[in-house]
Amino acid sequence: MKKFLNARTIIFSLLLLLVLLASNSKIYANPSDLFFGESDYKASGDNSFSFLAISDTHITRTNVEEQENLRAALSFAENKGYDQVNIVGDFTNTGSEEEYSIVANIINDFSISTDLSMGNHEGNTYERFNRYFNSQPSRHEVKNGYHFFYLSPGTAPFESQIGKGIFQGGDSYIYLRSWLESELNKAIAEDPTKPVFVFAHHPIHSTVQVSEFWFGTGLEKIFDNKPQVVLFSGHIHTPVNHPRNLVQDRGYTAVNTGTLSYFQMEAGVEGGSMPENGEHIGHGLEVVVNGSQVTIKGLNLNAGQYIGPEWSFDVTQELKYTRNNSSARALPYFENGAEIIVNDVEKFGASITIPQARIDDTHNLVNFYRVEVRDTRLGSLIRNNKIWSDYFVYPQVDHINYDFKGLVAGRSYTVSVYPISGFGLEGLPIKTTLTTKPLKAEDEQTQNGKIRFGVLSDLHLGPKQNREKKHFDLAAEYFNKQNLDQVVMVGDITDNGREDEYQVVAEKYASLNAPVLSSMGNHENDTADLFEKYTGSKANDHKVINGYHFITVSPGKGLYDPETGLATKGQGGGNYQYIRSWLKDQLDMAVEDNPDQPIFVFFHHPIQNTFYVSEEWHGYGLSLLLLQYPQVVSFSGHIHSPNNHPLSISQDYGYTAVNTVSLSYFEMESGKRGGTHPKDNDCAQGMIVEVEGNKVRINNYDFLLDKNIDQSWEFEIGKPLPYTKLGRRAQSKAPVFESNNDYTVDYSEDFSKALINFRQAQVDPKSIADDIVHSYRYVVFYGDHLIKESFKEWSDFYKTDMKDYSSVEINDLKAGKDYTVKIYPINAYGLEGQPLLVKLSTK
Questions:
Q1: Over the stretch 319-344, which tens digit does the pLDDT of each residue have?
Q2: Ramachandran region of residue 552, left (φ > 0), alpha (ψ -120 to 50) or beta?
Q3: What is the pTM of this model?
């Protein structure tokens, strides 16, 4: 199918290219090989074919690692000389124009032919799919004599001639079932000895690994007892080296294609369905077909290596990869002499090392370990948790470290570890005993029930960052007047993580009267040694200050190493999954210490869809964990958005998430004219947090103006949380313009532009107290005809000294015309008020 045509390519050029390429090219499918509805076709060509199958690339502008994973996959396929690459949906993260463009540009950098189908993340973007990839969402093609079906989810009716539903997206395929059955039967009848390849983003329920949890609808039983069908799906983000990655229990072959983004696997495993070291990976499948024979191998595309079993089968013979075969029945076991090593025993928990078990079958593996902890004297079950064997990590580690809490001081426990196979069969355990440390007098803590601390983020300091150094000096001057117990820096303290930048950080920290605690961000990259040397903080730490728990967390890759307190593959990026188990233990200890107090957690990247702009800029790995702890008050930066916005605090998920702004520049949400950087975006904001018992007050401050920001937030742990978007939106009212708005208009010399100056709209007096006028939507009419698509601009709400008047420039006006500009005010909660009407007359 590929390369893709530009949207403006004229019809003549398209036809000419198709004619030229039909003779000798991998760029497009031959037009005679594309089928919709009742098309007549005949297959022909060489008897062998090879392709790479991948899925779930989730490309965005900010997900650089996913972009690189896609490049690595295409490069690998091109170097291997495959005939084709097939991408089975969710190639974008949201289906935006920008994401489509990035995907197309990456693919166009390679010469290998590439075909795509849509997933749920593309949503209803048929027009973009067709424009960027010169293709239809659902279609039937023939390549080298083999039939390929590309299916995209959607809703009826199905227009078979153009391969689309009335809407695309969702998880249902029933709308195209009739067409598919007809085309599928014809393809099989043409040559029953050849496989037929089907690509659909969602797996069928209870086929491949984890499809019992994540699946689509509408294709059930349609492939049953059709051994020619080889169905490739994605969506579930599971590793390709699992033995249930390919199953043939229903008389056809169902295959999971893996993911180029992150793993999400079975439920019921400690830490959730997303393993700590399963972020930003690249798995795919090599498929080689020759006549009736199909061979499929798993690939680690980042490393360019084969992983896991090789599946080889003949569609004219009995299908062998079922739960009843010998591989599925193999039991895992620990080798003779294998022992659990007890590393550390504390009052309330312990750390152990588990040797990897074995299994005598190349088509099986050890999937989990079940760790059972019992009180030795009473026999009562204390823990019974599954943990990952990390079978998806290459090279696989020869042992697993496991830390657990929830024990009682001074007691003896029996720990049993059971290996579990990829098909769920459990082997015999290895065991050990341990005794927790007895209680003793704790180190004295100053616990007066109160604390006052400052928070900053995104300092971006360095020798040449004069603006940022000046802003820090303003913050330090203010903080030093406030009698603070602590100052916390939430990542991106340097601009690039260089040592000379850390030296500036150390110099600036020394100017503060209060002690400083820091976490790392993405701009520090993998510089934990320099970070600890110059800041005096650990990348991941837990301190008790005035009786309150402060936990700092830094992004990283790999696993958590308890000896170093760091990620095994380095710090940096935006992934926090490696630290999740450690953080859970720290939170559990803090809750056990005092369940009624706030627990302060600091990490650089916000959790997605919490506070303002975090839906666009965020990290990964902690969202499900923090849901369990209503005591948590988390502070994050990264997005550089202002705290002049009421939604810069979020309690929608049962805990409190707070934005910490920046000492560098503002960057806000997309969708505004001019991009994400507002005018006059120089900024220096921070906050002071005052705590007494379970009561928290956050005061936001503008260091450039040396004045408080109107937004301040108060709440109590254990009480109803007031700062939820849904609750506040229900109390808000659309903003209003005063009836006598005294706007003025200034025209350019040629009257092609008009600058409108108008009095700002006001918050409705009946709206919620912290509401603001966030932005304006502008629409230009000539008579009754819309002549310019509406656009939005901010109201300058991010300026603490926001002016009474705002202005907008209207371009592309024609001489001798009368125009009407409608200006709609929008509040913080997205409610749009009645417009101000502005009349323009050009000469």
A1: 999 988 877 889 999 999 999 999 98
A2: beta
A3: 0.53
